[in-house]
Amino acid sequence: MSTLHTLKWLVPTLALAGFAAIAQAEDVTVAYQTTVEPAKVAQADGLYEKATNSKINWRKFESGAEVIAAVASGDVQVGYVGSSPLAAAASRGLPVQTFLIAIQIGSAEALVVRNGSNISKPQDLIGKKIAVPFVSTTHYSLLAALKHWQIDPTKVQILNLRPTEITAAWQRGDIDAAYVWDPALGKAKESGKVLVSSTEVAKWGAPTFDAWIVRKDFAEKHPDFVAAFARTTLKAYADYNTNPKAWLANASNIEKVSRLTGAKPEEVAGLLEGNGYPDAAEQSKLLGPQIAKAIAETSGFLKQQGKVESVQPSYAPFVEGKYAQTAAK
């Protein structure tokens, strides 16, 4: 799914955080993307500051591939990525751990075809220009959809563009279709129609998700920071999941999500409802063999497509559920 700005972190309310003491982690850089999800409110309200008692530099990225590059360089300690770039990073042995499943992707990511492009069915994509950020969840979903439709990817002109570049190319009329997320998705829908969303692609056997990852060396030094970060995110999800209608009726929530993501206020509700936000109990089930298997399957697909050179014998080392378990206590 995704200007640099710095937020001063406030002294935590330990009773709220649920820890007797939290070791301060100084100068933490967290990479986020423009994905619409409930925890953007916690980010806007400075709740991560209060929970971790740390100064955090929030950096916005346009794609998971860019986040992975920043994490690999050591510039970023915690990052938000999709399952496809996560699989690519793990396959290359990047020392990271998946400590929280952010969202289970549904209709918030979709393949949109331009009005007037003469694309009314999948086979009409042959010979057309489709833009997508390479090694992203939408790239994985696009390739999976083409495979499901029995369309040879080499017969489609697949262009590697970032979301902002997709919007510009769409407005110029340079592309016929795009598989992307918001705000680029919403802008494309204004003059296009959805051919398929990740909800359908998941049913075809290629589910995608977004996750929070952390560098292993940082997590080993600051486990309390990671657990507090997870707890804050899960609290935000619980607030939404308990009563989505009431949450969406709060204009302040909508404004904060819109401001951090670039999505139009009137689009926020639909985008939030297009994904799933696993609660603490679900995290315990996901963060283990299930997610390791999903990463392995995604990696295998990427290898078939020539996006990674090799796969790991096991992806279990790249998944760590203890931080979510600690946060849930």
From TrEMBL:
CDD domains attached to this UniProt entry: PBP2_taurine
Record's keyword annotation contains Amino-acid biosynthesis: no
Alphabetic keyword roster: Signal
Domain Solute-binding protein family 3/N-terminal intervals: 27-251
InterPro entries per the UniProt record, alphabetical: Peri-bd_TauA, Solute-binding_3/MltF_N, SsuA/THI5
Top-level taxon in the UniProt lineage: Bacteria
Signal peptide location: 1-25
SUPFAM superfamilies in the cross-refs: Periplasmic binding protein-like II (SSF53850)
Sequence similarity: Belongs to the bacterial solute-binding protein SsuA/TauA family.
Name of protein: Taurine ABC transporter substrate-binding protein
Originating species: Silvimonas amylolytica
